Amino acid sequence: MPVISEVTIRRTRREDVGVIVAMLADDPLGGARERIEDPLPRSYFTAFEQLARDPNILLVVAEDGEGAVVGCLQLCILPGLSSQGASRGLIEDVRVASHCRSRGIGEQMVQWAVERLGFARSHVGMTLRF
Amino acid sequence: MPVISEVTIRRTRREDVGVIVAMLADDPLGGARERIEDPLPRSYFTAFEQLARDPNILLVVAEDGEGAVVGCLQLCILPGLSSQGASRGLIEDVRVASHCRSRGIGEQMVQWAVERLGFARSHVGMTLRF
């Protein structure tokens, strides 16, 4: 049985951007489209500021017991007319640091996002389809 | 060869909501989840007001030569950290009135959305993958 690592999910801060970008770059697709430089390209921080201002987007990280960032997830709420005007939830950019994979961290982050959506008050309630 | 109907794409107005909801309801999935009543449930108008206020969402309709609404499409811009902080475009809720299908109207709307994304200025440019 793999070891399950309990993580804490919290809102992303500006100083987490570097760790998140490193995780985004750490797979074959991301390796080709990110730019890991020191300092990081300004475009990442411009995007972070845009995300932080957007009331429909929540970018979070997962912290391990020592406070190290080991995962990230972006939750988007999309208003729309269909389903009687219900908003939809969209989960994007889920990543777990390569040395922490297969310990249930991604599952905890997605579970957190699903519960967050479930608790969001809506005029018609939220429907989750799997 | 089917007849191609040229349409005009314009931003949705409050008085279009009823026609859009009728199109959303006009397929097996939508028929089960929309509520066509007179007057329409208030939740549709609440959602419309939310869409109209959101700078990252553009809900448009396609008008035929007589000014009748024959299609709809929702374009969402999603900021994010990946791809060097590039925003993503998301196309949702594309519908064409049942009596106007197979005339290239959906294609014109999607083409409009793709061009709109292409013209959006970005610090890294936009990438479209098909």
Structure report:
Two copies of one chain form a homodimer. Residues 120-127 of chain A have low confidence and may be disordered. Chain A has helices spanning 17-25, 28-33, 42-53, 82-85, 105-119, and strands at 8-11, 57-63, 69-78, 88-96. Helices cover 35% and strands 23% of the residues of chain A. With 130 residues, chain A is an alpha+beta fold. The first copy, chain A, has a four-stranded antiparallel β-sheet with strand order 1-2-3-4, with helices on both faces. The A-B interface holds A 17, 20-21, 24, 30, 33-35, 41-48, 50-51, 54, 56-57, 59, 74, 76, 78-88, 90, 92-93, 123-124 and B 17, 20-21, 24, 30, 33-35, 41-48, 50-51, 54, 56-57, 59, 74, 76, 78-88, 90, 92-93, 123-124.
- What's the average pLDDT of chain A? 89
The number of helices of chain A is 5
Task: Assign the structural class of chain A, choosing from mainly alpha, mainly beta, alpha/beta, alpha+beta, or little secondary structure.
Answer: alpha+beta
**Secondary-structure element sequence of chain A?**
EHHHEEHEH
Instruction: Assess the beta-strand content of chain A as a share of residues.
Output: 15-25%
Radius of gyration of chain A: 16 Å
Largest sheet of chain A: 4 strands, antiparallel
Measure the end-to-end span of chain A: 26 Å
Largest interface (C-beta under 8 Å): A-B, 40 and 40 residues
Shape of chain A: globular
**Strand order, sheet with most strands of chain A:** 1-2-3-4
